Amino acid sequence: MRELYIKSGKGFLLVYSVTDENSLKELLALREQVLRIKDSDNVPMVLIGNKCDLNDDRVLSIDDGIKVSQDWGNVPFYETSAMYKTNVDEAFIDVVRQIMRKDAATSAEKKQQKELQKQNDMTAEEAASNNVGVADTTKSTSKSKNLAKNARSNQAKNDASNAESKNKSKCCVIM
Asked: Which spans does this entry mark as compositional bias, Polar residues (predicted)?
C-alpha cells in the first residue's frame, strides 16, 4: 500500500520526532524507498523534525536534522510543532513550490521536444517532396498544390521572422 502512495505522490514531507532517535533512523530507510520507487534522485522533498516544542524530551538536536539535510543534498529542513503550528505551513509551501518548479521544467522540456520533432517532420517532408518523380498528372497536380502551399507557409514564416527581428518584439509581430 505504501508503494502505491509513493508511486502516485509528487512530493514528500518526511517527518521524524525530535524526541525519538529511532524515528529518524526509520525515515532514512523511507527516503531510500521513495527514491527507489520514483527511480530518481530529483524528488520534491522536505525533511521535518516535529515536536520542537518539547524541549525537555528532546533527544535529537537541530544540528542532527541539518546534517541529515546536507547528507541528502541540502533538502529543505524545518523543525515544526504540530501542536502550535510552528513552521507547518512553511514546510507545505516549500514542497508545493518544489513540485511546481519540477512540473514547469518537465512541461518546458516536453514542449521543446515537440517543437524539435515538428521541425524534423517538416524537413523530412521537404526532402521527400524534392526527390519524388512525376508519373501521374493527378498526383503531380496535388503535389504541386502541396509544394505551393508549403512554399507559401515557409514564406509567411520567413516574413514574420524578418518582421520580428526588425521590430525586436518577442511577443508579437508589429506591422
From this structure: 128-164
